[in-house]
Amino acid sequence: MSFSLGLEDLPPGAVEVNVGGGQPGGRPHVAKQPIAAFEDEDFAERGFVKGYVGPQGFGDDVRIMADRSVRGGRDWITGANEAGHHVRGANVERDFRVDAYEDLVQLRDGDRCPLDGGRLSIERSIVVGHIYQLGTIYSAPLEATFIDEDGARRPFVMGSYGIGISRIVAAVAEQYHDDQGLAWPRALAPSDVVVILANQDDERASAEAERIYEALLAVRIDAALDDRDERAGVKFADADLIGYPVQVTVGKRGLENGTVDLKARASQDRSAAPLVDALDAIVALLASAP
User: Fold this and answer.
1) Mean pLDDT confidence for 273-283
2) Which of 29, 60, 122, 285 has the highest CB neighbour number within 10 Å of its CB?
3) Together in a domain, 66 and 143
4) Is the distance from CB of 4 to CB of 15 less than 8 angstroms?
5) Which residue has the higher pLDDT, 269 or 114?
6) Are 197 and 234 in contact, with CB atoms under 8 Å apart?
7) Residue 28, class by beta-carbon neighbours within 10 Å (0-12 exposed, 13-18 middle, 19+ buried)?
């Protein structure tokens, strides 16, 4: 059996022992057999007083493990192995032994770093990549070996790494969105710019939208042309939903004034650019996009 000494400078019940240990099969690293929390009958069977168990006076049939954060501490307050009593000033070696120091306590938000005293912050996250140092855990039993420079046969030291492409997209979408839809950074946007033809039945607007679209492609800017037979409002909503970094609207009203309308998706800032300078204005706006 094992006895675990927790953090005595915290209120009773504030610290939980990590029974599973985070190891394969749910077994702590220190255990040959699974470790389970005592039930009431276990305390009764072994003569332990529930709520007052301390590390003093145990024989070799009990393995005493302490969390690493306890190491070096002094004058602990522990159970006295007697109902209603505690011991003050208990110290390792003099009053009890520790057979192994291990990571036993479950991490909690606000826990102190043992190196610099900083506080741990536990937040929701998503794994977008991983690296595992596997060592020889697989190569040794499989006898996957190589001959080293001294002629000795040694097992391969293995590692594993991976990038979650779909997870990266999901993580970015979580950070870059608003009520209207996505607001992709350029690195992940389906296209850098969308040219929206506001008036499908206007020949000049159609021609200018096509011209601007082709001009963007000519300078190697990834662009999309929305010339669908849909209402302008539908196209605007879809552009916001998809999240192109820059939107360019070409419509009859703007052309009458010699301008096209620009919108930066991330900031929602709108502006008008002279038709003759449209390409330069689009390039400049795109350069300021995330």
Assistant:
1) 97
2) 285
3) no
4) no
5) 269
6) no
7) buried
Residue 44 has pLDDT above 70, yes or no: yes
Residue 43 C-alpha from the chain's centroid: 41
Query: What is the Cα–Cα distance from 130 to 128, expressed in whole angstroms?
Result: 7
Q: Are 275 and 260 in contact (CB under 8 A)?
A: yes
Chain segment 85-97, per-residue pLDDT in tens? 999 998 988 999 9
- Shared domain for 115 and 25, answered yes or no, is yes
Whether residues 66 and 94 fall in one domain: yes
Q: pTM for this structure? A: 0.61
Backbone angles phi, psi at 112, to 5 degrees: -85, 145
Q: 245: exposed, middle or buried (C-beta count within 10 Å: 0-12, 13-18, 19+)?
A: buried
The SS3 of residue 88 is: strand
Residue 264: enclosing H or E segment and its boundaries? strand 259-264
CA dihedral 246, 252, 253, 254 (to 10 degrees): 40
Render pLDDT for 197-212 as a digit per residue (tens, 0 to 9): 999 999 999 999 999 9
Residue found by looking up tokens 């930066």 in the block: 264
Q: Please give the angle made by the CA atoms of 173, 174 and 179, to the nearest 5 degrees.
A: 85
- CA-based nearest residue to 289, from 259, 265, 256: 265
List pLDDT tens digits, range 47-83: 889 989 888 888 888 888 888 777 878 888 888 989 9
Q: What does DSSP assign to residue 107?
A: P
**Which domain covers residue 198, as residue numbers?**
193-287
For residue 22, give the CATH number of its domain: 3.90.960
> H or E segment at 168?
helix 165-175
